[in-house]
Amino acid sequence: MTETPIKLLLVDDEEDSRRSSAKWMTRKGHDVTDVSNAADALSLLERESFDVGIFDMNMPGMSGLELLQRIHQDKIDIEVIMLTGQGTVETAVSAMKMGACDFLSKPCALGDLEHHCFRARERHELKKENKQLKAVISRVRPAAKLIGESQSLLDVSNLIRKVAPTTKPVLIQGESGTGKEVVAQAIQQASRVADKPFVTVNCAALPENLVESELFGHQKGSFTGATAEKPGLFEIADGGTLFIDEIGELPPSLQPKLLRVLEDGSLRRVGCHRQRKVKVRIIAATNRDLQTEVDNGNFREDLFYRINVLSITLPPLREREGDIDRLIDHFLPRSYHIDDAAREALNAYPWPGNIRQLINVIERATILADEFDITPDDLPAEIVDYGQVPSKTTSEALPVGTPVVVPEPSHPRDMLGDTQYKLDDIARVHVLEVLEKEKGNKAGAARKLGIHRRKLYRLLDRFNGKADTESSDDESACESVL
Ligand SMILES: Nc1ncnc2c1ncn2[C@@H]1O[C@H](COP(=O)(O)OP(=O)(O)OP(=O)(O)O)[C@@H](O)[C@H]1O
């Protein structure tokens, strides 16, 4: 048999026909369970999952049709083929209406029976895939490319290539915003299950009481609010990849349940006794130091070893030599230009929020920029001010406590070439000088300076802020600089 075996449930009170069918299908390599009545079938279906059920229509006690009805009511996931000795069009129609996928008359050639079982299983798989896709479509984000050519990022890319083809769990560690989810997507895309679902869950974003049902699913009525049965993300990701973000936040009570799935793929929905099997590749991420969490008793050691088989540590952005410029060029729309001073400020900043923060700063700058030119004015003050040594006043050459006075120049010409002045100081003197020459006419001054009038207001606000922190777009706020 080249096809994968079918997990089959045969329900028929006629012992001879049931046994011979079961024997034949087992010989063909399928995984067959046979029972003689509907009640036994139901209790079995509560504990185990099957691909296909073959139900005899006429059985003493609960009939095949009633069994089908119960399956429909309880939303049990199985494709059913009805079998009958006295097949009529009416009975076939009512069985199909109740959700049977096929209807066969007895006696049925065993080869035909197997053929119909394959068709039913195919339908079962398609339905499952459809469900997975619907759930996954709302969850996936478009895959992002890993931008950067620093040695540390190249090392990460190498590791991704090596770990992707295995089925082992991967643990991705790194500060917030370093790209752990992007790396998880890259691993999935380079894996053997790239065409299968990629489902993500963030343990920190879910209320603690919902994490279990989100991950493992729940049975209808298992808790207040469980109005319908729901498969968990493990089931939705079956055959594919589950990305568990912020795994360090997984409540200790759920850690054994996760360990179990990692060990043998088995799980139970909340409020359900039936054990299910899934085949899911786990990629976990954390910005906590999981080893410390283990040492502090917050994270199970056995689970840590299970997920830490292959691990990737993402370096923070400040340690990726040259990547800031590459990321700026990638995320800054083509129509924009960034000047050297702004670029320098971005390169000097330590980026505690890493790439996510850099992207936000670039987006903000494109909104604030006059025309399409990004200057330090368009960056947040903490970035522009970061690392700016307040000129000679803090010169290392001077003994601590020595009072140093930087002379207040009257003209920017006097300041040029003198490295004790900050760019801002020169700009301030120059702007005020031009404004003075224009007799306070801001439109004229802006024209002379080659900048937009709004930008002049902002500059004046900023210069003014050195003495007066109040800032506004209002012209009157600028008057005090004059
Ligand atoms: N190397 C990279 N190239 C391009 N974009 C990147 C890169 N790394 C991260 N990003 C982008 O930065 C943002 C943050 O990345 P991501 O969500 O993967 O970070 P994270 O480490 O998972 O953060 P958190 O720990 O907060 O969940 C996303 O918009 C992502 O697309």
Automatic annotation (TrEMBL):
GO terms for biological process: phosphorelay signal transduction system; regulation of DNA-templated transcription. The keyword 4Fe-4S does not apply. It comes from the Bacteria. One of its GO terms (molecular function) is sequence-specific DNA binding. Residues 7-121 form the Response regulatory domain. Transmembrane segments: none annotated. The modification 4-aspartylphosphate is found at D56. Residues 146-367 form the Sigma-54 factor interaction domain. The keyword ATP-binding applies. Keywords: ATP-binding, DNA-binding, Nucleotide-binding, Phosphoprotein, Transcription, Transcription regulation. This is Alginate biosynthesis transcriptional regulatory protein AlgB. It comes from Rubripirellula tenax. The lineage of its organism: Bacteria, Pseudomonadati, Planctomycetota, Planctomycetia, Pirellulales. The gene is algB.
